[in-house]
Every structure is written in C-alpha cells, then in structure tokens.
C-alpha cells in the first residue's frame, strides 16, 4: 500500500471510533477542528491567544488579519475543539453560534445542569466529519500575472472556475474575451474552466436582448452554435448560462433554448450549468416566473442558486443573504431540482450603504476582509442580527456621512455551510475570486473535502 493511502486509512480509522456506550465520538482532536470566538470589550489578540494556548500569528493567519487590532463583536476562528466559557457565555449561545444543537453539546460534554456553568469551563464543540462537495467560483480575467496568482492562490478550494464573461449581441455573436491564461492555468491547477455566457450590455443585464435571442429560432440556433464553437476552440469544460432579469413571458422560450443547448453540448461531451435567482415557489416572486426550476433542472448538469442580494445597492440597507430566505429557497429548490445538481450561492462581498435623512440610499461593495478593516479603522463594534444570521456595523465617514455595512463572517458563513450538508446538495459557489474572505476559506477547508477533477 502506498504511504499516502496508509495515511488516509489511518485518518479514517481514527475518526470512525466509538465510545464505551456505543455512541459515535466526534473527531475532537482532528487538525481541522475549530471554534468561533466572539470578541468582547477589553479583549486583545494576545489575551485570546494566551487563553487558548495559540500564537497570535496563527490567529491572524486563520482570520486574515493584517495587524493585531480587533473590535468588540468581531468573530474569530480558533483552532481546536475546546471553547472556554467567558463572562456572558452559555451553552445555548455556543451551540447557536456554531449552528449545532444545545442537546448535542450537553451530550458530548456530559453536562448535568446546562444552567450551572461558570467562566473558564472548557466546552468541547462537536466537529462533524468532513463531507465531499464540489465548489465553483466566478473569475474576471485581468492580465496574465493577476490571473496566475489568483488561480494558484484559490485552486485548492475550487472545483470549477466560471470565467466571466461572454455576452451575445442582437445577432447571437459572442463578445471576445482574453482568457487563455485563465483557461490553461485552471486545467493545470486541476480546476475545470467554464465559460460564463450572460445577457449583459452596457446598461446591465438586458431582458430585451434575451427576449430577442430566445424567441427567434434562427438567433437561438446561432447562439447555440457560437457557444459550442467557443467551448471547442478555447478548451473549456462547459458553459454556465447567466441570463438575468428575464421577462416572465420568456419562460418557455428560455426552457426551449436550454433544452436545445443541452442536446448540442451533450453530443460533444461539454457540461451545462445555469445560474438562477432565488425563488421560494414557482410564482414566488412573480417577477421571476421566467425561471422554471423544474424544467431547467432536468436539462442542466449543475444548478447554481444565487441565494444572495435580498438587499442590494440602491435599495434599502439590510442583510445580503438572510438565512431564512436562503433556507426557503433550498426548501423549494430540492422539490424541483435533483439535489446532486444544486449549488448554494455564497456572497463573498460586503455592501456599504450611505444613509440619508430622506431615506434614500446609495453604496458600494467590497471584500469581507475590507469590511472588517473599516470597522477597525472607525472603532465600530460589530453587531449581529440573529434573525437573518448576519453581521453589520455603523460608521461615520470623514464628511460626516452615516453608513451601515452588512457582510458575512465566521458565524454567518458556518450556518450556510451547514445547509449544504443538511440538504445533501452537490456543493456551493461564490462571486467572486479575488474578494478576500479568509474565514470562509478556512472553514470550508475544515468542513469539506473539495472534489477536484
């Protein structure tokens, strides 16, 4: 037996063990175990590191921190399976933060009275075994050096790379895109490059462009032919269709287009995936009726749920991916699409809204790590909305403008990751590579075994 297989076998045997009472024991000492700590007033990285017997450098690396600044309410990933109760903590809070049941913590720790706990008590946080999933991420090619760095940095975490984007004109001719470096490096890094075809124009996603192409058989055939040529000549594994803001009346036209495209690509052994907006019913919401989950789910290989942007820039401020809506979307999707085709969309960005007295909002987006840095710059405590399972904070800019920032962190992302396992779906994907979110990357590598081609 090869040494690598011996190591894998030993790891499996070490995890699949049983306690004296016959109940499975969690892999508590596995190197992938972690707990989530919530920074309290008066905390410093040095203090936290000393309590948990870890180095400041290790905590900084795991959480993507550039310095030693932290703010109250900030979440930190700490390696190991033991959480040490601090003032104000409880077993219920620890369970809720990690997305597990209080009963599970009580059982694993043999707690006699969960109300009778005290500061300094060590609580073992159960660590479920890793599950295998596929992952996808969108990438916007820039230049050779940037593309090489990006793909080499993230390739261990990504099964498929959606190279963004090609868009057809009114005659079905696809726009050019220099992606040679990205395509070749994706294959080299054992990730599958996928061409992303959209209905983007200079004014954004254009439903009128999609309407013209979808309803006209001649244009539909031309677009399909051009997609097939693109995949064959550029070395792609397949295509991801990202047609957004479709008219409800184009539902059957879109179904027909996807069916015809699937037949064409299948003959040439290409994969077909689709990105769809989040729905909670066939006509819920009604303006998304153009997307027929059931029909589309039959013809595609992978079905990417864009379970984010419930609040968007230009609209009212709020959580980007509230857990209740994410869960409702999955509840509906699994009744229409085979689970092993479904990918859960993960937002890799924060939204920063400028608040005005008249109620109008405007804003910008940036990486999650930048949101944390901004909170530190302004000394803004991070708050956490339990209903949406989303963090946020307020700050005032140099001009006196009031802002609110909603983002994702270790607490919110672990809840979404657990849905992948709970619903037994194919995997997850995010927009986009290059938006730094070290906590999401760290937890993903600890919770999942990423499938690579």
From TrEMBL:
<dbReference type="InterPro" id="IPR017853">
    <property type="entry name" value="GH"/>
</dbReference>
<feature type="domain" description="LysM">
    <location>
        <begin position="81"/>
        <end position="125"/>
    </location>
</feature>
<protein>
    <submittedName>
        <fullName>Putative sporulation-specific glycosylase YdhD</fullName>
    </submittedName>
</protein>
<dbReference type="Pfam" id="PF00704">
    <property type="entry name" value="Glyco_hydro_18"/>
</dbReference>
<dbReference type="InterPro" id="IPR018392">
    <property type="entry name" value="LysM"/>
</dbReference>
<dbReference type="Pfam" id="PF01476">
    <property type="entry name" value="LysM"/>
</dbReference>
<dbReference type="GO" id="GO:0016798">
    <property type="term" value="F:hydrolase activity, acting on glycosyl bonds"/>
</dbReference>
<dbReference type="InterPro" id="IPR029070">
    <property type="entry name" value="Chitinase_insertion_sf"/>
</dbReference>
<dbReference type="GO" id="GO:0005975">
    <property type="term" value="P:carbohydrate metabolic process"/>
</dbReference>
<feature type="domain" description="GH18">
    <location>
        <begin position="133"/>
        <end position="453"/>
    </location>
</feature>
<dbReference type="InterPro" id="IPR041704">
    <property type="entry name" value="CFLE_GH18"/>
</dbReference>
<dbReference type="InterPro" id="IPR001223">
    <property type="entry name" value="Glyco_hydro18_cat"/>
</dbReference>
<dbReference type="InterPro" id="IPR011583">
    <property type="entry name" value="Chitinase_II/V-like_cat"/>
</dbReference>
<dbReference type="GO" id="GO:0070492">
    <property type="term" value="F:oligosaccharide binding"/>
</dbReference>
<dbReference type="GO" id="GO:0012505">
    <property type="term" value="C:endomembrane system"/>
</dbReference>
<keyword id="KW-0326">Glycosidase</keyword>
<keyword id="KW-0378">Hydrolase</keyword>
<dbReference type="InterPro" id="IPR036779">
    <property type="entry name" value="LysM_dom_sf"/>
</dbReference>
<feature type="domain" description="LysM">
    <location>
        <begin position="35"/>
        <end position="78"/>
    </location>
</feature>
<dbReference type="GO" id="GO:0008061">
    <property type="term" value="F:chitin binding"/>
</dbReference>
């Amino acid at each position: 037996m090869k040494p690598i297989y011996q190591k894998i076998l030993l790891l499996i045997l070490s995890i699949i063990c049983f306690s004296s009472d016959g109940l499975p024991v969690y892999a508590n000492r596995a190197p992938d175990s972690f707990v989530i700590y919530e920074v309290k007033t008066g905390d410093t990285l040095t203090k936290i590191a000393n309590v948990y017997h870890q180095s400041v450098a290790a905590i900084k690396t795991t959480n993507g921190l550039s310095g030693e600044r932290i703010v109250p309410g900030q979440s930190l990933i700490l390696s190991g399976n033991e959480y040490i109760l601090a003032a104000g903590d409880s077993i219920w809070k620890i369970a809720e933060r990690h997305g597990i049941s209080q009963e599970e913590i009580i059982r694993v720790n043999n707690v006699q009275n969960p109300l009778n706990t005290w500061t300094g008590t060590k609580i073992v946080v159960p660590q479920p075994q890793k599950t295998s999933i596929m992952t996808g991420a969108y990438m916007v090619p820039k230049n050779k050096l940037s593309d090489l760095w990006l793909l080499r940095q993230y390739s261990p975490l990504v099964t498929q790379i959606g190279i963004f984007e090609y868009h057809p004109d009114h005659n079905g001719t696809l726009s050019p895109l220099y992606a040679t470096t990205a395509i070749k490096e994706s294959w080299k890094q054992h990730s599958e490059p996928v061409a992303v075809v959209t209905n983007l124009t200079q004014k954004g996603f254009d439903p009128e462009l999609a309407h013209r192409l979808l309803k006209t058989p001649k244009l539909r055939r031309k677009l399909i032919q051009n997609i097939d040529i693109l995949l064959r000549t550029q070395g792609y594994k397949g295509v991801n269709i990202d047609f957004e803001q479709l008219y409800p009346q184009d539902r059957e036209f879109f179904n027909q287009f996807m069916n015809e495209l699937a037949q064409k690509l299948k003959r040439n052994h290409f994969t077909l995936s689709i990105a769809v907006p989040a729905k909670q019913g066939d006509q819920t919401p009604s303006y998304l009726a153009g997307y027929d989950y059931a029909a589309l789910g039959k013809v595609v290989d992978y079905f990417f749920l864009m379970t984010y942007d419930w609040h968007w820039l230009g609209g009212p401020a709020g959580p980007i991916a509230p857990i209740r809506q994410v869960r409702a979307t999955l509840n509906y999707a699994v009744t229409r699409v085979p689970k092993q085709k479904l990918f859960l969309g993960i937002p890799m960005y924060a939204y920063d809204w400028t608040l005005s007295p008249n109620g109008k909002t405007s804003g910008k987006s940036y990486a999650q790590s930048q949101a944390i840095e901004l909170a530190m710059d302004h000394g803004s405590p991070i708050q956490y909305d339990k209903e949406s399972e989303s963090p946020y904070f307020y700050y005032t800019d140099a001009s006196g403008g009031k802002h609110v920032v909603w983002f994702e962190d270790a607490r919110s992302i672990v809840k979404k990751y657990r849905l992948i396992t709970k619903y037994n779906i194919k995997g997850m994907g995010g927009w986009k590579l290059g938006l730094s979110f070290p906590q999401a990357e760290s937890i993903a590598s600890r919770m999942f075994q990423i499938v690579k081609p």
